[in-house]
Write a structure and sequence with these properties.
Number of helices: 8
Structural class: alpha+beta
Helix content: 40-55%
CATH class of the largest domain: Alpha Beta
CATH architecture of the largest domain: 2-Layer Sandwich
Strand order of the largest sheet: 4-3-2-1-5
Largest sheet: 5 strands, antiparallel
Oligomer: single chain
CATH topology of the largest domain: Alpha-Beta Plaits
Number of domains: 3
Length: about 260
């Protein structure tokens, strides 16, 4: 009975000590992470790298805490390491997808195909990159839906980054009746583009006849803008060019066909 009491007393002490270490460790980790987020050194890094490093540090600290708790319980570390090593193969096989995502997250940080805030089309999702974590990347769609994409999928898929370059080009096609004069239509389009506050003049705006049918001519319009102004320019061009056509009395193909039939 004395031996049993001694064993229970020792075990209770170890369990109590492990609980105290666990609670104190969690508090310390939270304080450390809070302090790290305020470091000025992270201000020099972009948001993507900062979040990834902080997530990695947090995982490492929690692993160290678990090891400390196991040690406090009196479990020999040599045996723990041996068990982890023997179980590592089985866990690795069971978690192939998770390990692939972890490797993908590390490669995303090294290769940097995109960063937080970019608008991308990748892994079957389109939207703004909200965060890049160890195992997955969160993308917010235009209508504010949250899409979680595994990092492993991103590393094995084509990634289109629409905001990587400072300039983008808006491509549009406008049609008019074939009876119109191409040079006048071209000048009408260029004059309308010149009135846009989002259109850049370098490279110069482009407007040329590019096709048509028996009743119509099609003009391809290509205008450059700053990347952040892409959609503003897109909708503005659609409006101001149509308005310019109306002001000059440019006839639409459908209207011309109806007039001929009448």
């Amino acid at each position: 009975m004395d031996k049993i009491k001694e064993m229970l007393t020792g075990t209770a002490g170890n369990i109590l000590g492990a609980i105290v270490i666990l609670i104190v460790g969690i508090i310390v980790i939270r304080l450390v992470m809070k302090a790290l987020r305020k470091l000025k050194g992270f201000e020099k890094l972009d948001q993507t790298m900062t979040r990834f490093i902080l997530n990695f540090i947090k995982w490492v600290l929690y692993v160290m805490l678990i090891i400390a708790v196991i040690g406090m319980l009196g479990v020999p570390m040599a045996e723990v390491i041996a068990v982890l090593a023997s179980a590592g193969v089985a866990v690795g096989l069971a978690l192939q997808g998770a390990l692939s995502n972890l490797a993908g997250g590390i490669l995303l940080m090294i290769l940097r195909p995109f960063k937080v805030g970019d608008y991308v089309d990748a892994g079957g999702a389109s939207g703004f990159v909200h965060s890049i974590n160890l195992f997955y990347t969160v993308i917010l769609t235009i209508d504010n839906k949250r899409v979680t994409v595994p990092n492993g999928n991103l590393m094995n898929a084509n990634v289109t980054d629409y905001t990587a370059e400072p300039k983008r080009r808006v491509d549009l096609v406008f049609a008019c009746a074939k009876s119109e004069k191409p040079a006048e239509i071209q000048q009408c389009i260029l004059d309308a583009v010149a009135n846009s506050k989002y259109a850049l003049q370098d490279p110069e705006p482009f407007a040329r006849i590019s096709g048509g049918t028996n009743e119509s001519m099609e003009f391809t319009v290509r205008v450059w803008c700053n990347t952040e102004d892409y959609w503003d320019l897109y909708f503005e061009l659609n409006q101001i060019i149509v308005e310019a056509f109306a002001a000059k009395g440019v006839q639409a193909p459908a209207l011309r066909v109806l007039n001929e039939k009448a």
